[in-house]
Structures are given as C-alpha cells and as structure tokens.
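[Automated response] Your request has been received and processed.

Submitted sequence:
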Amino acid sequence: MNVYPSSDAIQLKWWYWLNSVKGLGPAYTRTLLDAFGSPVHIYEATKGELEQAITLPERTWTALEKSKASLPRFASIAERQSKIADAMGARILTLHSPDYPEFLRCIPKQAPPVINVQGDLDLVRPRSVAIVGTRSPSDEAVERVRSLSAYLCENGSPVVAGMARGVDSAAHRGALDSDGMTIGVLGSGLDRIYPPENAPLYVETRQRGLLISQFPFGSAPSPAKLRQRNKLIVALSEVVVIAESDVQGGAMIAARSALEQDRSLFALQWPNMEIPSRAGTQRLLESNLARPVDREDMDALFNTPPSRASGVTVTKAWEAAFPRSRSTRSSANSRQRQSRKEISKGRSIKSKSQAPARHRP
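Generated structure:
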C-alpha cells in the first residue's frame, strides 16, 4: 500500500477525518495505520476488513461509519487549516510526515495523528524533562522550578511544560532565561493563547523554543483538552518532575501518565510538606511512585529506571497511593468546575499576542 507523507490540504482531509472519529484515539489509529497504510485506505476498507485488524467497541464502529458522510466537510477544514498555518508560519504534521518528531512517533499509544508546530523541532529529543505542577505555587516553588529549569537547559536537556499559570510558566521562564530550550504544549489551538496573560511567554517560546498542539487552529481550551495536553507533555519527555501539586491537581494526570508510559517519575522534596499544595507531591514520594530530585546528582534523572515495582500494575499501584472516595470524586468535580471557570474568565481578556485572533477549525 502507498503511504501519504504529504501534509498538503488534499491529503490532510483524510487525516482530519480519521482524527475526528470519536473513540478511536492514538492507539487504535496507529493499529489501523499499521494494517492499512494510510487514512484513505482505512476509509475505503469494509468493516469486515477492518475487523480483521482491530477489535473496537460497537459505538466506535458506528461513529467511524457515520463519519464517512462528512468527508467533504473535512476537505474544507483541511484547506482552512492549511491557510492559517501558512499565515502563522506554522506547520501541520501527520504521523507520515518526514518531519514528525521520531521521539514522539515511537510512542504508539500517545502520538497524535496530527500535530501543529511552531519553532525548533530539534528540541523533541531524548533527555528532555517535563516539569509540571500547580497553577498557584508558593514563591519558594517558583524560584526552585526556575533554577531547576535553567540548570537542565544549561546541561543540554530541553524543558517541557504546558504554558499554564504557576509552575508551567516558571519552568518556561527558567529555560528561556538560560539557553531557551523549552517546549510549550498547548491545550488549545496554536492561535489561541491560554492563559491570555502568558502572551509574551508564548511569543518568546515560539521564537526561541517550540510550541506544539494536537488540536486544530481555532480550538478553545477546555478541561478535556488540558488533560490530553498533560499526557502529550509526558510523551514528549524522558523524565517527568512533579514540582508542587495537591492530591487532586492536574499534575497528577501527568504523574499517572508517566507511570503508564514507563517514564521516570521524580518529585521535588520540601522542608514543609504539610501545606495542601504539596500533598500530592508528598504522596508520590511516600508511596515510592516518584523519587526525590537530587540537585547534587542530576544524572540520576536519566540513569534511574521507572519506579514501578515488578508485577504491580499502574492501576493497582496508583489506587494504593491515591484511594478513591466520595470526597475525592467531589474534589475532582470541583477542580473541573474551577478549570472551566478560569477558561471562561480567560476568554474575556483580550490577548495582546501577534497570533491571529480566532478561527474555526
């Protein structure tokens, strides 16, 4: 079968169609691509042929078949997305594009079929470190994260973070104030700056580092997209460091994803671990799911294997450390409501970025 490496609008429509199928996800998508070679061959295959390659829930089969009728709409979307990318000086890459980062492509369960990028793709490489944490860090955490980020960059390790308030911003700033080796992973389209006050940081990262998003131009942030972004942050990193986070913080999504992706997981240790914003960090260390970061032995970040005990699944290990309860679920729902509230508030703040204002995908 032929493979279509081109990302022009003619080929992109097939990728946008495949990427739109609800319930398919990166892992199922990769299985189908490995079996059929390209989105167009997946589109043309019968259900019987597809079933020989993959087992899907019935609702996903239904969504796949139903989506085929919308192909003309995806042709229009592809053309519009390509024009926006050209106007922004950005690139749209598919899994079959020659420039798609190999470090990311080799993670079949997490590599998005389509990504939008701006900046230096060479930063996607081994020895990269993700630094994640709360959006409301202590002053002590901000200073320590900036220092750690600068140290990593000075020693050749790109820093990956989510362009959010708090720990993320401190990680990017520490990198930019050093060698500028930082990757900003967005939970929105590349043309949608969130939070709006990070516009200067966004522009500087675009110019001196790399911005990457798995969402089409024009996509607004949402709690679901921000969760997906956290998993992509992990996929782009060899090591994950949890700086400061409460038990229900979004950084815990990254922590669990690090275990699921067999990444080495570390956490910052603090003299005072009793404050709520460090409860999650403390739990990771106490349960031995994460190891403490030792500034005197930074090589241990890359020489230490993942901390999961042999024969213990991630789910069991995680549930032992973070048992679910009614209050836990209530707290999670509260966090989602707060996230939606912050996103809604951010939409009302006019961005001063040079990026285009708003586009529909």
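Summary generated for your ticket: The mean pLDDT is 87. The radius of gyration is 20 Å.
If you did not submit this request, please reply to this message.
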